[in-house]
Amino acid sequence: MQKVRVESNRENDGSSIEPKLRQLTFAEITNLIAEKRILGEGGFGTVYHCCMNGAEVAVKVLKVFPAQETKDFQAEVKILATVYHRNLTRILGYCNEGVNKAIIFELIENGNLKHHLSERNSNVLSWEVRLSILLGTAEDFGLSRIFDFESAGLSSRIVGTPGYLDPEYIHPRLLTEKVDVYSFGVVMLVVITGRTTVVEGATHITQWVSEKVTNGDIRGMVDPRLERNYNVNVAWRVVELAMACVSSNSSSRPNMSYVVRELKECLPSSNDAAGIALTTSNMRSVFRPHTR
């Protein structure tokens, strides 16, 4: 996993957020998002493409944020302000006004994975690039575990995009590594199939793929836009790995170190994988897992 550089500010007592960041009023945020250029929506809120001081930025406006959780928000923004990693977008500013919360990020021009998998995008990601993206994500798995969220004042409540949360977590609210493994498995299925988490009306992608697996229909499972430009045996191996990650029995799910090893073996060669990774290194997303 790539190392993350962390700069701490021990003198900050938590009453204010990283002073280098720009703090905006909610009125200023409202003006920024006036054009309603939506980049995406999820469980956390809506992300807008905006222009601030002549620079293009992404503004994430959170859904109604309970006033009593303000300390959580402050702690999270402080952490985001001190973390530097190639797969995390840089935070530029924030709004912390009562229940109104927003975070301003740098805009990554290459877009996000959702955009590149969209049917509206004429540039279809090759099978090798898809595997490279999955491998890079798997290797960066656990970035959040580098930090001591409890000492930073963060609770363990998870806000995520519907369709990616482990059903086993939703009810008892027991957060374990295997909950994250499930979410990664769903991401794998989305990347393999080119589909959203809900397929053909109201069928969750895990169920849809499971039926294809039962019928031995790998061609009907893999994104048809790839036009069969992939190794069928490798495709089966990746699908089986993804299905292991989303197993209804959390104890039978693999750990991420195993997932990384399997994905590495599925790539053509280490040299090819390195070249592919370079072409996708800037495809960072403002829709990364959101923990608070």
Automatic annotation (TrEMBL):
The superkingdom listed in its UniProt entry is Eukaryota
The Gene Ontology terms for molecular function here are: ATP binding; protein kinase activity
Where in this chain does the record put each Protein kinase domain? 33-267
- Binding positions (ATP): 60
Has keyword Amino-acid biosynthesis? Answer: no
SUPFAM superfamilies, sorted: Protein kinase-like (PK-like)
InterPro entries the record matches: Kinase-like_dom_sf, Prot_kinase_dom, Protein_kinase_ATP_BS, Ser-Thr/Tyr_kinase_cat_dom
The alphabetized UniProt keywords are:
ATP-binding, Kinase, Nucleotide-binding, Receptor, Transferase
Q: Could you identify this protein by its name?
A: LRR receptor-like protein kinase
Lineage of the species this protein comes from:
Eukaryota, Viridiplantae, Streptophyta, Embryophyta, Tracheophyta
